[in-house]
Amino acid sequence: MSTVTEAGPADVAGSARALSERRPLGDRTFQILALASGLLVLVILVLIAFSTTQQASSWFTSQGWKIFTYNWNPTAGDYGALAFIYGTAVTGIIAIVMSVPVSIGIALLLTEVVPYRAARPIVYVIDLLAVVPSVVWGLWGILIFAPWLNHIYADIGSAVKGIPVLGNLFGPPTSGASFFTCGVILAFMITPIVTSLSREVMATVPAIDKEGAYALGATRWEMIRGAVWPHSQGGVVGAVLLGLGRAMGETIAAALVIGSSAVITSHLFAPGYNMPAVIANQFGEASGVFRAALIGIGVLLFAITIIINVIAHTIVERSARRARGA
Amino acid sequence: MAVVTEQPNIDLREPKGWRRNLNRIMTWLMVLSFILVIIPLVFVLVTVVIKGAPVISWTWLTTGPIPPNVAPADVGGIGPAVLGTILITFWATLMAVPLGILGAIYLNEYSGGRGLLGGLISFFSDVMTGVPSIVMGLFIFSIWVLHFGFSGFAGSLALGCLMLPIVIRSTYEMLRLVPNSLREGSYALGATKARVTVTVVLPAALGGIVSGALLAIARAAGETAPLLFTILVVTTANPNVFSGPNTSLPSQIFTNASSAFTGAQARGWGAALTLIVICFVLMIAARIVTARFTRFQQH
Amino acid sequence: MTQPEQNVAAQVQAEAETQQRTQTAAHRRMEPGGNSVFDTENVSIFYGSFKAVTDVSLTMYENEITAFIGPSGCGKTTVLRTLNRMNDLVPGAHVEGDVRYRGASLYAKGVSPIAVRRRIGMVFQKPNPFPKSIYDNVAYGPRINGEHNKGKLNEIVERSLQQAALWDEVKDRLNKSGLGLSGGQAQRLCIARTIAVEPDVILMDEPCSALDPIATGAIEDLMKEIKSKYTIVIVTHNMQQATRVSDRTAFYSVLRNEKSDTRTGVLVEYDKTERLFQDPSDPRTQAYVTGRMG
Questions:
Q1: Taking the complete model, does pTM exceed 0.80, yes or no?
Q2: What is the ipTM of this complex?
């Protein structure tokens, strides 16, 4: 007795209906949740821009273009922020100048010189460096590093006093907490980022290009200049920009070691101020337009770092695409 | 008929000195850069341990309130700060990690990081990792604190905003490494995309995701700036994260660092040591998870 | 040893002896060329403890084109890279036996691989121009050897590109990127780049395998033109190419080691090209060139 029956037309239609059923609710909900979470990034960025600008509006409206003047005197109602913009630029540049050669050197060390197994401990050290919280850098900076540096500053300062350019840069007044100290600590903090990004870029250089250089009788350094560097330079530039953005936005270490003095001066060993530091240090006591000014400085900082990051990521992406194509 | 002539004299020794020397100098410069980086790291760690260890004890870590700056080092404890750090970071993690994973799922499983929306989200979540943490603090101040007052939770929101792009980025990289053959196997059995993602892709990438999340937590635990305007540092413990100001280890270190009193400074060192230990433990945990539980790493 | 194992061992022994006798026979009847450029004597190449190539002995002569042919995995590229110490770049690689270049041992103490590679250049399977201009690609070698005089560099670049039969095509765009050339042009650029340092020998590792037939023909013509100035050793998968361009041919094959399931390359026969293809001494050569193998 056969237990298998032939499928009749109704059955077939029924199964066809099953195939065309709409996606189950759970599946669609999941997709919507995922999309919403992704969109959250864009939403937050937009909200940041709007809410902070709104809170800072009284500063913008009451000062107009004077916000870019060198005139910071809250008690008198003057809120020109040029000194902080200057300080952010100066400390950022010092950090880059000190960190970039070191970071590229380590990246080259890891990709070209050191054999694979010996590379791991070096990477661990770099990771350790990255994990130290910025407030600990600041604590050590202001209590130990800055006083020690001050001796060195004093010696250099007296040595170059009076000499045309050097005296203006490195001459007195000197102070442990200064632009330069801040720049050095920022350099410590951004080295891990620039190193690991540069390393990623350099690792994409095709081995066959390196072999081509060696086959012409090149030494390792000549191979690096001929084959590795042309491939990596775009990506490394992007990495450096990202480091610069990070240095400019770094708050707590800067707040502790920069010296909290709102002056524009060429003397790098003198105390100064920068954007995130002034916000951190003075927000507690601020209200009204003063507070709006501090938030406004935050808006400027946000804008600057967003621009730098957009440029940096565009450069990195474009050089990665070119590396894949070639 | 081929002619055999006298062979030229072959000298196969090193090329002219300057080329070899340049190569050697450059190699040594690279090694020097690494040494230049080890020195400050060692100094910081050694100093923190030497100055912080004498202050730390179990009672010190768990009792409060935090004494005023003038008090000597053996008075009081930083329990409130430890509690605050744990609670605030916990809530930040609770919000940022699931949302970050879902966002990365959208990027990799649904949009492939391409297309208008996918491309924008991917690009801007990278950009967002570069937003200064103090801006996150100002942001939450503007939209939350002004309406709901200072609280630990406000700090969690700010830290969460900081963690979100980091979690998205690291989760996305992990999801990309999961081979497509795994997904196809599940699809072929008739599973929906949601089911495939949750039951096959996530477990496969889990090690890397957890590791990335641990690193994000370590970053958040060490942040001070977002908390400055959101939790309003206090000296007594506040177990209620949702109402009333709170404190945290980094916040305490910050206020103590600029104090002239040795007692306060000693407490700062102790708190710094505690914080570093927490961050290191999280980092080591992340490494262990990566080493033992990720199966799809490319070399 | 059990009986089957003894049989296998005896078989392997017999085969080795036959091979040795055949090799010696082919070598003996082969006329020498002019000066010997390479002289390998019982050279075996190891990666760590794994023997990749065993017991290669042959002599390559000045101003001739020598071809290495054989099935995949027979070690012909490995042997080639041993001739300019490129195997040094592979961790764990080492060489036993003697490799002599014009009488000087390449692997003796104190020998600099950099000096070796300046004299013995290499062109690779996939053209690999640097991401620089055409001019800078060709000038790279002379520059690292200390030549910075603009006039002399111009002269070297033009001469090398002319010898590589590429000058007319690129003389008006010397500062365009080398990456923008077609496959055949890029390979000729790599040859020009190699020629620019005035080597003695040019090694070529399957230089045409990534190129279309027309580009391949151009490279083959080029090889025949420049052999009066250089000695060329070429690894090729293409037997017709070997017959077209080479004066002598070395045929490699694979020895299977059943016990450890590894394959070791071995030199089977080395003779003047015409004779190797039309009247090979070894049955394995016969099988390969008539297409029954590999």
A1: yes
A2: 0.89
